[in-house]
């Protein structure tokens, strides 16, 4: 296999004057990444594990940054047999089974390599080590400096003055440089004799047994004395003692080992070392892949800093390209002169007409407030005003406030909500906003993970802006601040926003999403900003009491665990837990991992059912209490001076359109256990209000599935008057509703929601704890009763494959180019996204429309009650005195009429003095 981007050859020498060739052992590095990062913490919402891809990319970034190679290749093992398997049936036979989460990550990693211009190489009948050995040999012959990143010690035989092995240490970032001196110091033999030593000692990973009782020190002593393994074999009778006899008895194994561990340096390859220059990065491809894998933006930034990107601003500057593109004429506002500039350049009937003005801010915002350190207004033609709020007089403030609030003067901004919070803290309102370029870009490509202005300008305008950070101010600039004058960078940012808004508006029109921006997302910004400003009242003393209680419970669990075992140990150490559980107590072994046997939560829960020993349950309790204590501590830290918690709602994070909550995440307050639900008691009604009211949609995803699929039996189930899941179970299992027990109901409930989220038969089996075949049969029985659901799920994927996207009931699109990918893992991941995006996205559409309608109705009705939180399908309202009945009726009506489905939108309402008591 050879995959390489068609790019110009890169032959620039290193600082020392020689090209540097970096060779990576693909599977070795990928496995190391897989076992170094917890698989349960690295995965997509559709179930694709990503820890190996993420770790591999992180290691590669460090290698490219630290080593600065001119040529790079990754060698991969193929699944077929090699010449070593043909000689020895037991070759690598002792290796543990590959974790099921690993194989699908290899093609994704290979795709990433191709996209960043790194060549992937494999050869049938040979291992990756042989490919590396061949390239290393050719590289040294070509006068290159060669570096090999591998965790396979066989690579040490390749070490020379020109070839160094970068061998993994204790962490992903720890690589030891194994040059000739390091190999000699570590093993007592020079690199060219390491193969002899390995033949004597054996290699457990390859199932190559060595001489019993002979370790590296003894082997090195023999090789040093006799000079080589060949000489040792000729003089085998001179080796005395039991070790000598063992050597003679196992001589055939030793000679076989030496043959098998010799790396081949003449593998036939299609690529020469000079063809391995680091190619140009396909940024669009990397962006799409990282978005689908749901990687955070910091890895992307680190990667782009070390690979070759054709739109790099510095390269463009060297070629004489125009990396700016914005000609701004900046006026720094003088005290008392703001009104004059606005009248001349930004009046609704002035020279700019109705063209929107770009607005850019310097400052901070979050947790319901913000600060403005600087503001720039840029209009058509490039005229720009920079304002320092500290230099304004009363007339300036009045003029600027009138301009910012005037709905007749259209404006565009990047991150509208942040601007609302920052300006609002200064006493200014912001009206007339016709576009938020972050929101517009999100609607164009909802799968992206970041919508930074710099990236958007690069992608949509083909312009490179440089980010400058000089202390308190963060701006975009084209040169030194002293050269351009104060405010130039912020004016450029405002100009970039203006131009970007035009391009994104056209793209939204083309994709049919302009109405979502105008009618849903932009109006919602104002609602969310007011919710963030209001916050929700928190009972600090109660939270501190809970914190102490959870901490005490955690300490008690530690003491009980020590009592059970009879000695102290660290409950947070997997290594010590393995010793205690499987060695000291002799409990059944759990899933085998690289470091032993897993002690994760699922494993402990399983152990609790396999033994009468109390310890697994105590360990689970300790983890629960520790997690709860951490949650409470985090909440206490976020209580503001007004005794309220002000979360931040994000519109551009979830690809399905759902809102998310951060700092703190109030959508993740535990509610599954009684003790977790107690945390919700800490969220209380604030002074001047009567109670909290909660209202949420009942089974909204399933109602949307009934609407989209048109399945009459599903629609009838909602209208039957029976418990929905019991009614569904009765039809699937062909029994009366009264005969449905808890287990049958739970299985069908899991099935119904699983289908709404693209769950596979295997995923269902894991969720229900049943065999995959049983889960498959359950799914078949379900579809036999509800064939319209099966047909809908099939059609939605096939339709998306044809047009390239899925669509919600309001026309929110999610583009999925991987639906036609040749890579099976990427194609299946896109298929799962195609299954759940219309249902989850439609649910997001409906709750957003409901928020807008509830907010508008509260305002129009003159009510003092206000919406505080949105938690998935639930709204939390703070009810003013005397408004309880009116607000309940209003909320129920507006939520229930947010969209006309084929089944009614069920709304449940509750109230109380705190969030817990308001549950229903």
TrEMBL record:
Reaction(s) catalysed by this chain's protein: DNA(n) + a 2'-deoxyribonucleoside 5'-triphosphate = DNA(n+1) + diphosphate
Annotated GO MF terms: DNA-directed DNA polymerase activity
Enzyme Commission number(s) from the entry: 2.7.7.7
5'-3' exonuclease domain: residues covered: 17-279
Stretches assigned to coiled coil: none
Region forming the signal peptide: none
Annotated 3'-5' exonuclease domain residues: 329-509
Domain DNA-directed DNA polymerase family A palm: 676-883
InterPro entries cross-referenced by the UniProt entry: 3'-5'_exonuclease_dom, 5-3_exonucl_a-hlix_arch_N, 5-3_exonuclease, 5-3_exonuclease_C_sf, DNA-dir_DNA_pol_A_palm_dom, DNA/RNA_pol_sf, DNA_polI_exonuclease, DNA_polI_H3TH
Keywords assigned by UniProt, alphabetized: DNA damage, DNA repair, DNA replication, DNA-binding, DNA-directed DNA polymerase, Exonuclease, Hydrolase, Nuclease, Nucleotidyltransferase, Transferase
Gene3D superfamilies in alphabetical order: 3.30.70.370, 5' to 3' exonuclease, C-terminal subdomain (1.10.150.20), 5'-nuclease (3.40.50.1010), Ribonuclease H-like superfamily/Ribonuclease H (3.30.420.10), Taq DNA Polymerase, Chain T, domain 4 (1.20.1060.10)
Similarity field: Belongs to the DNA polymerase type-A family.
Name assigned to this protein: DNA polymerase I
Native source organism of the sequence: Nocardiopsis alba
